[in-house]
Design a protein that fits this description.
The complex is a heterodimer of chains A (319) and B (252). Helix content of chain A is 26%, strand content 28%. Chain A has 319 residues and is an alpha/beta fold. Chain A has 2 domains: 170 residues, 3-Layer(aba) Sandwich (Rossmann fold), CATH 3.40.50.620; 118 residues, Rossmann fold, CATH 3.40.50.1220. The termini of chain A are far apart. Chain B has 6 helices and 14 strands. Helices cover 28% and strands 29% of the residues of chain B. Chain B has one domain: HUPs (Rossmann fold), CATH 3.40.50.620. The chains are: A alpha/beta (319), B alpha/beta (252). At the A-B interface, helix 4, strand 7, strand 8, strand 9 and strand 12 of A face helix 3, helix 4, strand 7, strand 9 and strand 10 of B.
Chain lengths: 319, 252
């Protein structure tokens, strides 16, 4: 049996969890899910629709919003009771955090950000995991009768595999300090503008923008097609744009339908954040810039002269 | 407030990764070294907290002895002292790394109020060392923090989730792992660099338990030759770009 930690935000399932279930289904038909916290039951139907043969819902009156160590405690109890061969979750901040706690509680290894998992006989698993935000792959052997692993976002496709809905509820037994660190409040809102991580189109600028002023053009392009503005690390380090807009290994990782890279050379730090785009179009004066190796289309031109022309054409097309 | 900051020396990659002949490491013969942006922010946060509240900043750097260079750079912006844990060329797995860091922290004469780390290292990216250190030390841990305030022995931490921020509070002592964007790290001043030369660095040796995650080989993912279609330049390219956007369905 493989146990998948299902990550949700107040009843809204994280999409990488479904990718984790599909990754687990390829290893064992008996995939069960564990989900904890307020709204947990709401996601059970979706988990079954992607192949979870059983959904364990952990309840505790103290567990409303996300509480990382308590979630790990709930997973840990199921591991002890059912001895799964592996525990898998999505490679997201929360997925990595909960399984990090689980691994620490059990003093077991934890292979985060896997792009491939094979369970060999006995206590050995052969995995490939992402280093450097996915710019380098680490082919490794994990020695444990319990593989704890997360799957890198977008590394596995989520494949529907309808299972009848079987839900079993259990009470989570907490230990001292398990609820000390939990979400107590949320600030800011998504009002006004499309979130970078969810945007279908990301219009991103780099060093070639030569300063904060030219980003007005990127805002105009993004605004006219319901996209979000992004940027490279150079841009946030220079203070041209807020850090929340940084795309890259230490910023946001995006997977839009279109990534429009304006004046971005394509350092590995940046590529780690944008290479999952379905279509990447790069505008750069240098046709040999590293970003061109990842591009589907290139415009070899200066952003300062090209973007005004493009905005005009875009206006004509959207009117 | 006494703060320990765990840092790691990593190669500064440009736009390509070159491996050694045995495919077991990155060829660092032609690259420089630095810290992950996450850790630069951790040091900046620690220095600022000590400026405001008094106390000390201790750097803990595990890795190659040449990491003294990164230690001196961070001392130049205000860290007071450092422990350099020499791994003798061994790359421990996160479990072993966390055990060694926790040992160094608990063995130190200073009772740290706060342990700061990056949320994940730039190179290995295991996303777990801070959590493991916290469990070893019996401390609470908040991860991936992008906003940090400390008042009356309580740390208020913000972490980005989509376009909102979650707020956590945690009593000190605690482990907090931070992300790039927490602050903008300052540049070292000339007097800062002069002072840094004289600050104490204790070098410790370490031996690790056998790794339970062992690398067979590293692979640079083959970049599918996408063979980007060249749309040309100027107005012609602008027209072509609009057409492509229609084709892929982002423009109706």
């Amino acid at each position: 049996m493989i146990l998948v930690y299902a990550e949700h935000d107040r009843g809204e399932l994280d999409p990488v969890t479904l990718q984790a279930i599909s990754a687990a289904k390829a290893l064992d038909a008996d995939v069960q899910a564990v989900v904890v916290g307020h709204g947990a039951k709401d996601v059970a139907t979706e988990l079954a629709a992607f192949g979870a043969v059983s959904v364990h819902v952990g309840n505790h009156p103290e567990l409303l919003d996300f509480t990382p160590r308590a979630h790990a405690r709930a997973v840990n109890a199921l591991v002890t009771a059912n001895s799964p061969r592996a525990v898998i979750a999505g490679g997201t901040p929360r997925g990595n955090e909960v399984l990090g706690h689980l691994a620490a509680m059990r003093d077991e290894p934890f292979a985060s950000e896997c792009v491939s998992i094979e369970l060999a006989s006995g206590d050995t698993a052969e995995i490939v995991r992402a280093r450097w935000g996915g710019n380098l792959l680490d082919e490794a052997t994990v020695k444990s009768s319990l593989l704890i692993a997360t799957v890198q976002a977008h590394a596995f496709a989520a494949i529907p595999a309808d299972s009848p809905l079987v839900v079993s509820e259990f009470d989570v037994e907490l230990a001292d300090g398990d609820v000390l660190v939990r979400v107590e409040d949320r600030v800011g809102s998504s009002a006004g503008g499309v979130g970078l991580a969810e945007a279908k189109v990301v219009v991103s600028g780099g060093r070639g923008m030569d300063g904060p002023d030219a980003f007005v053009m990127l805002e105009e392009i993004a605004g006219s097609i319901g996209g979000a503005v992004g940027c490279s690390r150079v841009v946030t380090s220079a203070g041209w744009r807020p850090h929340a807009e940084q795309v890259g290994q230490t910023g946001t990782k995006v997977a839009p339908d279109l990534y429009l890279a304006c004046g971005i050379s394509g350092a590995t730090q940046h590529i780690a954040g944008c290479k999952s785009a379905k279509t990447l179009i790069a505008i750069n004066t240098d046709s040999q810039a590293p970003i061109m190796g990842y591009a589907d289309y290139m415009v070899v031109d200066n952003v300062h002269t090209f973007l005004p022309l493009f905005i005009e054409k875009l206006k004509a097309a959207t009117n | 407030m006494d703060i320990a900051v765990c840092i790691k020396r990593v190669p500064l990659l440009g736009s390509a990764i070159v491996l050694t002949a045995d495919n077991m490491a990155i060829d660092t013969s032609k690259v420089g070294f630095g810290l992950s942006p996450h850790e630069e922010c951790a040091v900046e946060a620690a220095v600022k907290l000590v400026e405001e509240n008094g106390g000390s900043v201790t750097l803990i750097n595990m890795g190659h002895v040449d990491g003294e260079e990164q230690i001196r750079e961070q001392m130049a912006i205000g860290a007071d002292r450092a422990i350099l844990i020499d791994t003798n060329g061994v790359e421990p797995d996160p479990q072993a790394a966390a055990a060694a860091l926790a040992d160094a922290i608990s063995a130190d004469d200073t009772d740290f109020d706060l342990v700061l780390m990056g949320s994940e290292s730039a190179d290995y990216g295991g996303s777990q060392t801070g959590i493991r250190v916290a469990h070893k030390l019996g401390l609470p841990v908040v991860t991936s923090v992008k906003g940090l305030k400390i008042d009356g022995g309580i740390a208020t931490c913000e972490r980005a989730v989509g376009s909102t921020r979650e707020v956590y509070t945690v009593p000190l002592p605690a482990v907090i792992t931070v992300k790039d964007g927490l602050n903008i790290p300052r540049y070292a001043s000339v007097p800062g660099r002069m002072k840094a030369r004289k600050k104490p660095v204790d070098i410790k040796q370490v031996s690790f338990a056998d790794s339970r995650i062992t690398t067979k080989q590293l692979v640079v993912p083959v970049q599918e030759a996408k063979g980007a279609t060249n749309l040309g330049t100027g107005a012609e390219a602008a027209d072509a770009l609009v057409e492509v956007m229609k084709q892929i369905g982002v423009l109706s």
